[in-house]
Amino acid sequence: MKRGQSDPIVLSLLASLCCKRGRGNCKSANKEICSPTSARSAFLLHITTPNDLTRQVHNYMATLYKEKRLFQPIIILVGPSLSEISASYVQIQDVRYYVRTPLAAVDVCFKSFFALDLQYPSLAYPIWLFIQKFFYNIVTEADSNVPRVVSVLSSLKSAMSRQAV
Asked: N or C: lower Cβ tally within 10 Å for the chain?
């Protein structure tokens, strides 16, 4: 694999890392149960062909409307598989921004929540909280306690400190 080629796969797996499966699923900021699948779909859209981009985003927005959820900034990755991403975007309302890499999409999307004073999508809250605390080292008064995220952060920091010794 080329450098950065595994990044979209790792991003997709964050949902499994931050949300438990089965009984005792994690709860989002507003106490909704979030499965890894629902968290992943609220965190990023993977679209296999560029021709489907507009239609898939429209379908996603229609689903949110039916569920009475707000459209929040979202990462969009285009490519036949997560290991073959040809384009990365961040969609904020009706505006789609092209970014160079999937990691740049995470960065732009994350910063847009803070710059626009938006809340994370409720189902993807554990993923964004993990990114906020682990990669950006930001703690706010508004942060909810998500036990699964606290546990993962603790384990990772412990492993990193052992490696540094």
From this structure: C
88, with CB counted inside 10 A (0-12, 13-18, 19+), is buried
